[in-house]
Amino acid sequence: MAYLETKDLTFTYALSPKVNLDSVNIQIEKGEFVLMFGETGSGKSTLLKLLKSAIRPEGELTGELLFRGKNLLTLTRREDTTKIGYVSQSPDHQIVTDKVWHELAFTLENLGVGEEEIRRRVAEMAVFFGITDWFERSVNELSGGQKQILNLAAVMIAQPELVLLDEPTSQLDPIATENFIALLKRVNDEFGTTILLSEHRLDEALSRADRCIVLHQAKLLYCGDREGMVKTLMEQDSPLIKFLPSQTSLPMKLCSRFDSFTIKEGKKIMEKRFLKERSVVDDFTHFESKRVSRDNTQAETNTKMKYTPKHQNSPIVWMKNVWFRYEREGKDILKDFELKIYAGDYISFLGANGQGKTTLLSLLTGLEKPYRGKIIFEKESKRNQSFRRKISMLPQNPQDLFLKPTVEEELRNIEYEFEPYAKEFMLEDLLKKHPYDLSGGQQQLLALAKVVMTKPEILLLDEPTKGVDQLLKQRIAKIIRNLHEQGTTIVIVSHDIEFCAQNTQISYFLYDGMITQKAPTKQLLSRNYFYTSTANKMMREVDVNLVLEDEVVEYAREH
């Protein structure tokens, strides 16, 4: 008897003609770490919500949901709270109190647990999750990574048997993502907690998973071990191959290996493929020569870009010696910040959570004001203050832009002739749905469509690929690229290293409210040791300039 099982599970949302899950049969054993992935709208979030009664959606359900051999729908509210935990993709949406320790105690207080027992469990969780240093802090002071760790700790304090996680790392930087997934695996190993994790970013999760569930167009494509999953995707020539991380896909493409799931394994395979006849001394010499030549070749690389900004003109935005903090006595978020943005730029800001990237965008829109320094807009004067109206921003939380009860009304509210945008952003079949009933990726597309429809001169994008699968990323990249080629200036804040490397021209790295690096994006990433692409980590001893997976494949053709 499986610990968690679905039998011919089919589900359709109320008032929707589309089937969201179609005869899905899965089995999960107790104590397994199971990774689930698939394209946006394939049914991942729907499945997770059906397994948690507090957020179970309205609609028509057929088939069976079994937990420990019994109908999961018959669990009492207390059983559902104590046995099944849930972590959402938005850290802020799940936090309900003001202080860290309040958040840890909240669930136990609602369950009627005694004060002494609450203290004991709260202290134990604080130590296990390493949050003792910020135990007394306000939740508003936490970074995105800290908030998500707090959410996981608050779920685990009820000692659940099963934890469901829906894109929990979508708003986290690469280092915070690695730490969160490692902590989740520790929970799985040390408590024996069964984990069902839905993710688009598989770099960290795939290496730790016992088994994989793959959903495609509302159907189950695969349920089994990792090696079998890779072979299945390749044999079917599935578009979901693009979801595989570089440490898995490159050995598969170049060496017909289906068993590489860590960077260490992939690096070993790639070095054997490319460096098999080179000595250790030769390896070092080759690596250093590539590093030295990188800067010399960058100018040539830049000339191959479709658009090169003409920086002989004055900047359209100039942040001059800007200082900003949210509270009078609070910490400075930006410090003596200097930035020039030119017409036609396509730039990205990288860095860990909490370093000032989102704050920077808020200042550029005028939502926040610096307490020292100036933000100068070239086309703005006392007589003409309309330029800022030509700046549009996609916020990190797409729901901040939703005002109407249907997708159609959201679009029509911006432009009456909205149909071309609905088609371009793949919203045609979702027009009658409430925006909050969309998947995370679909909400992102709707929010981006609304922003693009304002026809901005400067487009600010805060995590535009958050919650979006690899296939939709290509569509979003094309939309943004077309806007840029039409003259729109693009500024992106992102944790998606590969997306920035593929699309942006110049990148800035922010740390502690200051710019610590500025360079052409690929050059910046190839200089870094930790904060770089997976492909670069695997291939830097072969050629330090290789940043993208496609570049490695092309390199293999030539060598």
Descriptive account of the structure:
- The chain is an alpha/beta fold and 559 residues long.
- Helices cover 38% and strands 21% of the residues.
- It has 20 helices and 19 strands.
- Strands 6-7-8-3-9-10 form a 6-stranded mixed sheet, with helices on both faces. A 6-stranded mixed sheet has the order 15-16-17-13-18-19, with helices on both faces. Strands 2-1-4-5 form a 4-stranded antiparallel sheet, with no helix packed on it.
- α4 runs parallel beside α6, α6 (144-156) packs parallel to α7 and α9 (246-255) runs parallel beside α20 (549-558).
- Residues 296-310 have low confidence and may be disordered.
Short synopsis of the structure:
The chain is an alpha/beta fold and 559 residues long. It contains 20 helices and 19 strands.
Produce the secondary structure layout:
Blueprint: E1 4-13, E2 19-28, E3 33-38, H1 44-50, E4 59-67, E5 70-71, H2 77-83, E6 84-87, H3 91-94, H4 100-110, H5 115-128, H6 144-156, E7 162-166, H7 174-191, E8 194-198, E9 211-216, E10 219-224, H8 226-235, H9 246-255, H10 263-274, H11 280-303, E11 317-324, E12 334-341, E13 346-350, H12 357-365, E14 372-377, E15 391-394, H13 407-412, H14 419-424, H15 440-452, E16 458-462, H16 470-485, E17 489-493, H17 497-503, E18 506-511, E19 514-520, H18 521-527, H19 534-539, H20 549-558
Parallel strand pairs: 3-8, 3-9, 6-7, 7-8, 13-17, 13-18, 15-16, 16-17
Antiparallel strand pairs: 1-2, 1-4, 4-5, 9-10, 11-12, 11-14, 18-19
